[in-house]
Amino acid sequence: MSVRQSLFAATLSIVAFTWVPASAQTLRYANQGELKSLDPYTLNESTTHGHLGHVYEGLIARDKDLKIIPALAESWETPEPTRWRFHLRKNVKFHNGDPFTADDVVFSANRVRAKGSNLQAYIAADTNVVKIDDHTVDFILTSPNPILHALWSTWYIMDKKWAEANNAAEPTPVAATSPSFASLHTNGTGAFTIESHQPGVKTVFKANPNWWQKPRHNIKEIIFTPIGSDATRVAALLSGEVDVIEPVPTQDISRVDSSPNAQVLKGPEIRTIFLGMDQVRDELLYSNIKGKNPFKDVRVREAFFRAIDVELIKTRVMRGLSTPSALMIAPQLFALSRDFTRPKFDPDGAKKLLTEAGYPDGFEVTMDCPNDRYVNDAAICQAVVGMLARIGVKINLLAQPKAQYFAKVLKPGGYQTSFYLLGWTPGTSDAHDVLNNIMGCRDDPKINRGEANLSGYCNKKVDEIAAKVLVEPDTTKRDLMIKEAFEIAAKEFGYIPLHQQALAWGVSKKVTLTQRADNQVLFYWATKQE
Question: What is the CA radius of gyration of the chain?
Fold first, then answer.
C-alpha cells in the first residue's frame, strides 16, 4: 500500500541560492473556486480541506509525502484489534484560548457523524468513542479496521465549548440556504486564524502566534480571493497581483513558464475524474424517458462508456496533461492496475448497444457538471456532450459553480442527479476508499458506505470483498481481492473513469512551495522572499 515518494510530492525551490526567511510576508492566493462554508464538516472536498487545514487540525496529519504523522494525537496504539487508543497532545489551545482535551475529540466524533455532515464515512456509526482521561480517547469498533485513522488528516477537531456556546453543535449541510455560525467563523488549533471571511469574495488568514508547532513558514497573512475567469487569474499571477494560483489553465502553462516572475509547478495527481449514471431510481429525475431508467440496463451504460473518446479529451481538452484511466483509482495507488485495459472507443458499437437496449433513436438526459472545481471540468463535459450526440443521446448540460453543484448532487442534497462528472481522491491513499465510498452500496443507513456513490451503483459481492480488504494484512492477497472487485465493477460498466489530471499551480518566483499529489495547497510550508 506504499507509494513512491517521488510521485507524492514535488518541491518547488525557485531561488537559486540558499535563503533564510528574514521577515514575515503577505501571500496572496487565487483559486478558480469559492470558499463558502468554514464548517469543516460541510464539504468533503480537497480544496476546502486545504483551506481549512490552515485553521483546523486532526488527530493525525499527512507530511509532504502524504505519510501519516502525529498531530493533535502524539501517539496511538491498538491494545486489541477492535480498540484504538489515542494519546492526545498536551498544552494545545484553540485560537480563543480554550484548552484542547478529550472532550473535544468525543464531541467532534459525534458531530462528524451527525445529520448534515458530508464526512460521515470518516467514523462508523457503530464506533463507540470513549474518553479515558483528559488526554486519552478510545475508539471501540465492532470489527477490526487497521486503517481506521487513514482518513483523519482532514477530520478536523472542533472546540466543544465554543461550538455549543454558539449554537453550532450540529454540522452545516452543504445544501443549507442560510449560513450557520460555524460556516462564518472558525476556532481551531492550527497555524493560522481567520480574521475575516466574505463567502465567495475574500478570506483573510493571519498567522497564529500561539501555535503549538514551530512554524516552517514566514507567512504573516494569507489573502485568498476566488477568481473564476482563467484569463483574469493568470493575468493576476503574471502582474504580481497574486503570488499563487490554482489551477493554471492547460493552454496557459507555457506562457506562465516563459514569464520572468512566475512559473508552473507541475506533478501527478492521484484524483480520478469520472462519469456516473443514476442506476438506483426506477425513473430518472432528468430525462425524457418516463416510467423506467435506461441506466439500469448494462447495455446502455456500456454504450455511454464506449462513446467516450478519452484520448481525444487528453489531446484536445487537457492538452496532453492527463492520464487516461481504465479504473476508478490512480495507478500509483494500486499495483495491479497494470492488468486492466480500457474498453476501446467504439461509437458504432455504442450505437448498436443502444438499439439492442430499445433506444434506437437515443434519449435525452441532463448532465450535472461543476465549472470551477477540476481542470477544464466544463470543457470535458462539453466534449462528452458532443461524443454522446454521435450515438443519438441528447445531453442537457447543467454546468454550475461547485457550491451549487455539490449542494444538488451530494447526499445532503438528496443525490439529485441522473448523469454527472465527479473527481475523487482517496483520502486514505488506498483502494479500499474507492470500493467503500464510491462503489459501495448506499442501501443501509446504519453503515457508512457509499457516501459519495451518487449513482447508487450496488453489487453485494463488491461490498463483501471490500469488507475483507479492510482487514486483510497480506498485501498480495489484498491486491488480488481489490482486483476482483474492480473486475466485477468493470464488467458491469458501473462507472466511466476518464483520467487522472495533472497538477498545475502557478507560483511566483519569490515563493517556495511544496506540492502534494492530493492537490491541497498548504501554506504552512511556504516561504516568500521580499
Answer: 23
- The grid cell for 369 is 457538471
Q: DSSP for 102-135?
A: HHHHHHHHHHHTSTT-S-GGGS-TTPEEEEEETT
**H helices of 421-525, where?**
431-433, 460-471, 475-491
Strands (E), 13-72: 25-31, 60-62, 68-70
Task: Tabulate helix, strand, coil % of the chain (nearest 5).
Answer: 30, 25, 45
pTM value is 0.87
Checking 126-129 for CB contacts under 8 A at 24+ apart, the result is 126/446, 129/105
Hunting for cell 423506467 — which residue is that? 292
Q: Pairing state of beta strands 136-140 and 128-133?
A: antiparallel
> Under DSSP, is residue 224 helix (H, G, I), strand (E, B) or coil?
strand
Report the DSSP beta bridge partners of residue 223.
28, 204
pLDDT of residue 23: 65
- Please provide residue 396's backbone torsions phi and psi, each rounded to the nearest 5 degrees: -95, 105
The set of residues, in sequence order, having a beta carbon less than 8 Å from that of 24 and lying 6+ positions away, is 207, 218, 219, 220, 221
Q: What is the pLDDT of residue 292?
A: 97
pLDDT, average across residues 403-425 = 96
Question: What value does the mean pLDDT take over residues 253-273?
Answer: 96
Is there a contact between 82 and 144 (Cβ–Cβ < 8 Å)?
yes
Contact (Cβ atoms closer than 8 angstroms) between residue 74 and residue 89: yes
Q: Which of 188, 27, 21, 163 has its CA nearest to residue 96?
A: 188
Q: Is the pLDDT of residue 31 over 50?
A: yes
What's the pLDDT tens digit per position in 434-453? Answer: 999 999 999 887 788 999 99
The one-letter amino acid at 333: L
Q: Retrieve residue 279's grid coordinates.
A: 442506476
- Report the alpha-carbon distance of residue 62 to residue 71 in Å, rounded: 9
Distances (CA, A) of 530 to 22, 224, 431: 8, 19, 43
For 190-199, the pLDDT digits (tens) are 999 999 999 9
